[in-house]
Amino acid sequence: EPEVTQTPSHQVTQMGQEVILRCVPISNHLYFYWYRQILGQKVEFLVSFYNNEISEKSEIFDDQFSVERPDGSNFTLKIRSTKLEDSAMYFCASRFGNEKLFFGSGTQLSVL
Amino acid sequence: TQLLEQSPQFLSIQEGENLTVYCNSSSVFSSLQWYRQEPGEGPVLLVTVVTGGEVKKLKRLTFQFGDARKDSSLHITAAQPGDTGLYLCAGEDQGGKLIFGQGTELSVKP
């Protein structure tokens, strides 16, 4: 089965540093998402992306966050100046249309 | 704000027992999805229910969507140790984003 690939699997950074989390969605998919899961809490929606623009974003997705699809295959989430509370597992997901949503294995971000 | 309350959060049972996990909301969803998540992995879709009153079966797992499309249940018959894991329900809103429940950590002891 095709899969969504995320790199790195673990990222450790210092508070205030910029991080870029990378995702390669399934090749013919059109809708892309980032979700995050803080340890012990619910999976939370961050942002959805379609047709090269953000479709919807949550309150969490403030000015410190940005997404990009730079080359038609990668889908990145950038956090400009990380905070301790950004520590979480970040999941990328993609789907073709109204069909099954595929999640990647996640990037565990630790902000020290 | 749409919320999905999932219960119970933790469930520890013996092999062979039956169990039910519930997801409840005051909001109507376009669909309700059930996922299973293994440690260190992303959620993997088990089933999507779309129509009010819909029932879907996946081997020993039975999923039901409430008539009003606000709640859902997952019933496992004769649970096995291989069923151990984290089960998540998620409601899909009109915009296509998912609102997740807190998850149910199931442990099935042999």
Describe what you observe in this structure.
The complex is a heterodimer of chains A (112) and B (110). By secondary structure, chain A is mostly beta strands. Helix content of chain A is 0%, strand content 51%. In chain A, strands 2, 4, 5, 6, 9, 10 and 11 form a seven-stranded mixed beta sheet that branches. In chain A, strands 1-3-8-7 form a four-stranded antiparallel beta sheet, with no helix packed on it. In chain A, strand 9 and strand 10 (102-103) form a beta hairpin. Chain A is globular and about 35 Å long. Chain A starts with a strand and ends with a strand. In chain B, strands 2, 4, 5, 9, 10 and 11 form a six-stranded mixed beta sheet that branches. Chain B has 110 residues and is an all-beta fold. Chain B has no helices and eleven strands. In chain B, strand 4 (31-37) and strand 5 form a beta hairpin. Chain B is globular and about 40 Å long. Classes of the chains: A mainly beta (112), B mainly beta (110). Chain A binds chain B through residues 4, 31, 33, 35, 41-45, 48, 55-56, 91, 93, 98, 100-106, and chain B through 33, 40-45, 48, 88, 90, 95-103.
In short:
The complex is a heterodimer of chains A (112) and B (110). Chain A has 112 residues and is mainly beta. Helices cover 0% and strands 51% of the residues of chain A.
Global shape of chain A: globular
Oligomeric state of the chains present here: heterodimer
Approximate helicity band of chain A? under 10%
- Amount of beta strand of chain B: over 45%
Q: Tell me, what's the shape of chain B?
A: globular
Average pLDDT over all residues of chain B: 94
Counting DSSP H or I runs of 4 or more residues, the number of helices of chain A is 0
Number of strands of chain B: 11
| DSSP strand tally of chain A | 11
The SSE string of chain A, one letter per element, is EEEEEEEEEEE
Please outline the major beta sheet of chain A. Answer: 7 strands, mixed
Secondary-structure element order of chain B, as H and E?
Answer: EEEEEEEEEEE
Spatial separation of the terminal alpha carbons of chain A? 36 Å
Largest interface, C-beta closer than 8 angstroms, per-chain residues = A-B, 22 and 19 residues
